Amino acid sequence: MTSGYWGLRALASRRAIALTLAVLALYASSVAQVLAHNVTEGDAGYIQEIWGVHIIPFIYLGAKHMVTGYDHILFLLGVVFFLYRMKDVAIYVSIFAFGHSVTMLAGVWFGWGINAYIIDAIIGLSVVYKALDNLGVYQRWFGFQPDTKAATLIFGLFHGTGLATKILEYEIAEDGLLANLLAFNVGVEVGQLLALFVILIVMGYWRRSPKFMTQATYANIIMALLGVLLTYQQIAGFIAST
Amino acid sequence: MHNAPKPNIEDLPTPAQLRRSTIIAGIGAVAIGLMVYLPAEYGTDPIGVGSILGLTEMGEIKTQLAEEAEADRLLDLEAAGGDQSSSLLNDIFGLFVGAAHAQDVEVWRDETSFTLAPGDTAEWKLVMTEGQTAQYRVSVEGGRINFDLHGHGGGQSVTYERGRGSTGDEGEIVAAFDGEHGWFWRNRDSQAATVTVQVRGEYSETIQTN
């Protein structure tokens, strides 16, 4: 996430969707950056100073990555938006966790060097997909409902590839890599559960409101637009980087 | 129209359940803030849990790196407005010294040795002009060391190599521009480490900068 979201700030200055963008831009500027004279700061700087097994620090970093990764959180929100039975929530969140764990671990282990902009653009599209899915658009357009579990799994695989790309940028030492990687993965799931806990409380209050179904339409339209925005930024970043 | 029906009100969590969850979340947030976030990000550990978890070290390293990056920024600003008159002198001096020592490739020209306690740092540089080449051998005893082999001068900076947990290394520095080229070491190990550096080749002098 070092330079991936720089396009965000350029956009933010246009004041197009002021509030949402300001929040997103804040996220972007709080992310660690590589600075002149080559001192790497922040999480990456810390990781590049250490070697050997550090279980709890890597759990923390994994959880932090998830909680501050708005693209993952948006997708998660989309997935559980209309799930109110705890059993359904558990099934879908497990599918998503399985998907992103597989590609995250394999991606780092085999060093899949996929372009961060491209993978983040796909993650942006996953948010758009899920928001449109929630709006029932596919039933109207195609006359049937695409399998929501399969979609969660497939996009989970892409989210994991995105996570792997970020971890590779961290340059974790070979010494203790596997243990630290597993700890990071545990952290990602811990972060996801923490985020989920908050999401479910907010959704719990919201669902009790009589206006929920009407507002849900607007909420998912906004979510789709945010997904488009994320995708656009990544494509713009990719074009600028080539 | 959505891909899901309106939830039945009796299937939803009751206001009492939601209130309880909110209170738990609030307590959890405060606990995470005090025991995890503050230690891991700022190195402050108000109730001592962060140190047990090994997170305070992370915060301390991050804070230290942020300070060093800030100091470097200020240094670069100074350098950009500062004098560059000594570089010509270095050129001439380097030419003589470089030529005089070009033949004896077998012996090391300079050597330095020092012991770093955990957390300590050292910096040692060679004054070189662009294109000059120097050979080095670093050996580490008693522990392992992190290093940053870099150069700066005339407002420019470059990283040649970085490493962590190093027990020794040898190689060559080819100066990318006129300036000081060499190492920054830091002991992140839990025990003291003795570093010995030997250098030879084209450079005018060595400088200790800490």
Explain this structure to me?
The complex is a heterodimer of chains A (242) and B (210). Chain A has 242 residues and is an all-alpha fold. Chain A has one domain (55-241). Chain A is 76% helix and 0% strand. Chain A contains eleven helices and no strands. In chain A, helix 4 (55-68) packs parallel to helix 10 and helix 5 (70-80) packs parallel to helix 7. The longest helix of chain A is centred in the last third of the chain and has 32 residues, at 177-208. Chain A starts with 6 loop residues before the first helix and ends with a helix. In chain A, 43% of the residues are buried. In chain B, the strands form two sheets. Chain B has a five-stranded antiparallel beta sheet. In chain B, strand 4 and strand 5 form a beta hairpin. Chain B contains four helices and nine strands. Chain B folds into two domains: 13-82, no CATH class; 85-208, Jelly Rolls, CATH 2.60.120.680. Chain B has 210 residues and is α+β, with helices and mostly antiparallel strands. Chain B is elongated. Chain B starts with 14 loop residues before the first helix and ends with a strand.
Structural class of chain B: alpha+beta
The major sheet of chain A is characterized as: none
Order of helices and strands of chain A: HHHHHHHHHHH
CATH A-level architecture of the largest domain in chain B: Sandwich
Per the CATH scheme, the topology name of the largest domain in chain B is Jelly Rolls
Helix fraction of chain A by DSSP (H/I, runs of at least 4): over 70%
**Strand order, biggest sheet of chain B?**
5-4-7-2-9
Overall geometry of chain A: globular
- Protein chains sharing the most extensive interface: A-B, 49 and 48 residues
Estimate percent helicity of chain B: 25-40%
Count of discrete alpha- or pi-helical segments spanning 4 or more residues of chain B: 4
Which percent band covers the strand fraction of chain B? Answer: 25-35%
Tally of strands of chain B: 9
Distance N to C terminus of chain A: 18 Å
